[in-house]
Amino acid sequence: MSLKVGIIGLPNVGKSTLFNALLKKRVALSANYPFATIEPNTGVVAVPDVRLSELAELTKDEEKMDSLPPIVPAVCEFVDIAGLVKGASTGAGLGNKFLSHIREVDAIIHVLRDFSDSNIIREGSENPKSDRETIETELILADIETITKLVDFAEKELRFSKDSLDPKKLEILKKIKEDLDKGKYIGDSLIKTSEGLDERIQNWILTLPLLSIKPVLYVYNVEESRLQVTGDSGQENALVICAKVEEELVDLSEEERVEYLKELGIEETGLERLIKKAYHLLGLASFLTAGKKEVRAWTFKVGYKAPQAAGVIHTDFEKNFIRAQVVSYDQLIEAGSLAEAKKKGWVRTEGKEYIMKDGDVVEFLIGS
Asked: With bands split at pLDDT 50, 70 and 90, how would you rate the model's confidence at 119?
């Protein structure tokens, strides 16, 4: 399952610095002037998961292997999108080109400048609150143009449609337009309010080509001195980091990195927290498989049933699914081996209606 997250914000707020740190190498041009990033840079980053190394150790011992099996983590694709400016929706800066890049991602990381540095040009940035409003206004204005076309098209189609869901779709489109015209940023509230509606309507909502319904993680980029006193934001969809510190951590050895974090009073790097939050932003989780060939984390949507999860490995697995042998990661580690977990009755046989859980260690039985 592919997950693509776009990093956006006003120019010079630290987007490319953050992106460079994420990739543990300086891929994006980080420069002190607007539009240093023109074409979006893309990189694939592993989702931190300590369970994989412990599961690999257990597999090595149980299978009597000479070395650990290969570890394959879940991954997240990040896209460094050039800085938006006021008026982007009408073509200012590199306007429409940037907006088109945002349309292609599943979720957004919105970097907000919350540091002072007279050496770095602000270029439209004032403070986190106004900066957030500037970007969201541009996304809303772009969406108003899109939703107007969608409403017009849906009204014409309804005259000839026999689909009973089409009137409901038109009603939803008009409600979205009404909110956007009032300057309301949709966020993921529309998706939440669609709960209980026909599943086909819910799936249709997810396909709407709107920028302001994409899940957003707000990243407040602060000075190093504020990390100790600021800590995490405490908000589910917000995070406090220092992009400059994160980029410096990349160049340190593991031992030096641990020591530096200890001095800052932080257990995890900001990047580790960011990657995990981005991964869960879309309601994703991981099930695990383990064997001599590899120990691997597979990404699935929360709410997937066992056959759908099997289909993540291979599309034929969903079609030919028979059953799944499942044990929770915690129980498997406590047992010390799969054989011992079976003795304790912790390994369950689950059928087609089983809803997968994060951390399930699974072996699928597939027919021919």
From this structure: low
